[in-house]
Amino acid sequence: MSIPLTHILFVSTALFFIGTYGLFTRRNLITMLMSIELILNSVNINFVAFNKYLYPDKLNGVFFSLFIITVAAAEAAVAIAIIINLYRNHRSIDVEDVKEMKN
Fold first, then answer.
1. What's the rounded Cα separation, in Å, for the pair 79 and 36?
2. Distances (CA, A) of 7 to 19, 39, 41
3. CATH assignment of 5-97, given 3.40.640.10, 2.40.10.10, 1.10.3720.10, 1.10.287.3510?
4. Could you point out which of 11, 16, 19, 100 has its C-alpha 20 to 30 Å from the C-alpha of 37?
5. pLDDT digits (tens, 9 = 90+) for 60-73
């Protein structure tokens, strides 16, 4: 018994829009980072799902997913370093404080 492609795409779409909503509505940098991770994970689900249903003998979608996971880990490490630096300087991780750093 296999899960239909439409169900997987529905979950991926829901993750993408939850991540987009979180990215545009939150002011906390940590929650914005988590929202970006949700968006990247929805893309990974799409790659693996389409790979399974279109080319079951090849692993192209899996390799793309591994590449995205690697990029997401590097992005998270750099973002957390920036957030820690922001907190040390301003004692807050609010996005409004980032705007004040430009002046």
1. 11
2. 18, 17, 16
3. 1.10.287.3510
4. 100
5. 878 888 888 888 88
